[in-house]
Amino acid sequence: MTATTLPDTGTTALPQRRPRRRRSINLAVGGALFGLIAVIGLVSVFWTPFAFDDTGGGRLQPPSAEHWAGTDRLGRDLFTQLMIGARLALAVGFGSVAIAAVVGIALGLLAAAARRWVDDALTSLLDIAIAFPTLLLAMLIVAWRGASLESAILAIGLAGSAVIARLTRIAATRVLAMDYVTAARTSGTGTGGIIVRHVLRNVWPTLIVPLALQFGGAVGAEASLSYLGLGSPPPNASWGRMLEEAQSTVLVAPTAAILPGILLVAFIIGVNLLADGLRDVADPASRSIR
């Protein structure tokens, strides 16, 4: 049997449909996972099945109609802790991303718009910060300021700001070399006006995906810090702290270790899939031809 050669119609739409569909699926699945856990976290602000410090449920009880996920070794309701952990993950994610965005964009714009020697100095410092392990840098900052939720957010945000600054500098330098920016300078527009009117509006599509990815990384970093005892202390029910507390009773009450791990993995996967889908929305150049 010989292969049939189809006539060349001059269109490339058909081969590009599959990537576009895959990105749509990623956006939908990521949004569903992120949205579900976000709703759980927001609901915990107003309602939880039990008080966090209620130890009247009995130690290491299995899931039941009263305690949907069972109880921990102190008799506290696990579902209540999981809800509070979701709220904590949202606070860490948004707080650290906000710090990384403010500090990183400011440093990146400064490096792109400053004189050559300032740019070289800042770029070298950013390269050193990026090469330094993020979790180790966060551990140093937390050890310096003391273990607390605010310290974890600040440490993770500052650790992630170097990557944002580096990307901002690259994108801003490219925009500043454009002809319309040169024309704006010729017409008398100052550096501040150029950054606000031209640079920022063209840089943000490049940063939205890295910032979304840093959200998931921040949640994972906080869980690691809490697992090591350097994260938010009780009564904050971090998923990482729940994993650390449940490791000694994992054979007796496996749900205390399995459920926080599932939520943590699902949340990070959801954020990563959502970021991949946002790439198509934020950057028109990456969209498939319809």
UniProtKB/TrEMBL annotation:
Signal peptide: none annotated. Its main location: membrane. It is found in: Cell membrane. It comes from the Bacteria. Gene3D superfamilies: MetI-like. The chain crosses the membrane at residues 25-47, 88-113, 125-145, 151-168, 207-230, 250-275. It is a multi-pass membrane protein. GO terms for cellular component: plasma membrane. One of its GO terms (biological process) is transmembrane transport. Residues 86-275 form the ABC transmembrane type-1 domain. PANTHER family: OLIGOPEPTIDE TRANSPORT SYSTEM PERMEASE PROTEIN APPC, PEPTIDE ABC TRANSPORTER PERMEASE PROTEIN. Belongs to the binding-protein-dependent transport system permease family. This is ABC transporter permease. It comes from Microbacterium radiodurans. The lineage of its organism: Bacteria, Bacillati, Actinomycetota, Actinomycetes, Micrococcales.
